[in-house]
């Protein structure tokens, strides 16, 4: 059986509070609006919050799948725009310390979904824990979310350096979030690019900026996606423009387009980029 190519995109930010999860949620919905069959994996395994952002109430999560109490299909939530969501567990320490076998058990169930998906968006935890690195390395594309804070830029550089030095990753996509002007977005990217150009041989691509927007705060308070409840807001317009760029990412070729390859990378930790 020929497997359908699935684009696996990890959305990460080395520092917490940069709006990474909000961006992952809204980007997923925007991609679904473009006709893509999208699944969003909440990979913040200890502090899940995708379901909270969307006002969803999962009765089971990945912890139940790992324990053998249910199948993956039993925990899938239906989100806005037809996005399917895999909830993680919140406040479960064990979920932050998965063994390679448990990683395999968590992800292997995705194989049967290959022909039902076009894109798998992974919302990672903040920081550079082993779990974050595992998901990032296994994805085909990586989006790093940064803000105009020195710690955000410094931590983003530290993540890029680690992934390049220790794991050979070369390509990084960057989104500037919560900017006051488009020029500020370019300035944030340039600050990061200036450092990477001096010390690392990596390729950075600026995907654009998401403006600071009161509509985002209002949407969060109402536990709705801003692109869903305020579709004409500045943030929603910018996210749709970002989705167009993500949708244009090169389609992965075999075997990189197989979810099985994602699984193998996640467990074995060997990424041939």
UniProtKB/TrEMBL annotation:
Protein name in the entry: MinD/ParA family protein
GO biological processes? negative regulation of cell division
The record's GO CC annotations read: cytoplasmic side of plasma membrane; cytosol
InterPro entries the UniProt entry points to = FlhG, MinD_FleN, P-loop_NTPase, ParA/MinD_ATPase, YlxH/NBP35
Q: GO MF terms on file?
A: ATP binding; ATP hydrolysis activity
Superkingdom, taxonomy of origin = Bacteria
Q: Which organism is it from?
A: Spartinivicinus marinus
- Quote the Gene3D superfamilies the UniProt record gives: P-loop containing nucleotide triphosphate hydrolases
Q: Which UniProt keywords apply?
A: ATP-binding, Nucleotide-binding
């Amino acid at each position: 059986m020929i497997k359908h190519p699935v684009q696996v995109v990890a959305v990460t930010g080395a520092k917490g509070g940069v709006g990474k999860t909000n961006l992952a949620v809204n980007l997923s919905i925007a991609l679904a609006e473009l006709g893509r069959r999208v699944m969003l994996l909440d990979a913040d395994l200890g502090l899940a919050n995708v379901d909270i952002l969307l006002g969803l109430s999962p009765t089971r999560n990945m912890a139940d799948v790992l324990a053998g109490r249910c199948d993956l299909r039993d925990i899938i939530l239906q989100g806005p725009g037809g996005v399917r969501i895999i909830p993680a567990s919140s406040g479960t320490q064990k979920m932050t310390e998965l063994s390679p076998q448990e990683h395999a058990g968590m992800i292997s169930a995705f194989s049967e979904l290959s022909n039902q998906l076009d894109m798998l968006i992974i919302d990672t935890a903040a920081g550079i824990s082993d779990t974050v690195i595992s998901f990032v390395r296994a994805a085909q594309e990586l989006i790093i979310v940064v803000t105009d804070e020195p710690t955000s830029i410094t931590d983003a550089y530290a993540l890029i350096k680690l992934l390049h030095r220790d794991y050979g990753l070369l390509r990084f996509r960057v989104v500037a979030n919560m900017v006051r002007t488009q020029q500020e977005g370019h300035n944030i990217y340039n600050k990061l690019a200036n450092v990477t150009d001096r010390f690392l041989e990596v390729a950075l691509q600026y995907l654009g900026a998401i403006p600071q927007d009161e509509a985002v705060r209002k949407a969060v308070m109402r536990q709705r996606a801003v692109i869903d409840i305020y579709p004409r807001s500045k943030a929603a317009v910018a996210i749709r423009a970002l989705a167009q760029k993500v949708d244009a990412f090169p389609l992965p070729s075999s075997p990189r387009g197989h979810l099985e390859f994602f699984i193998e990378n996640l467990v074995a930790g060997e990424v041939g980029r």
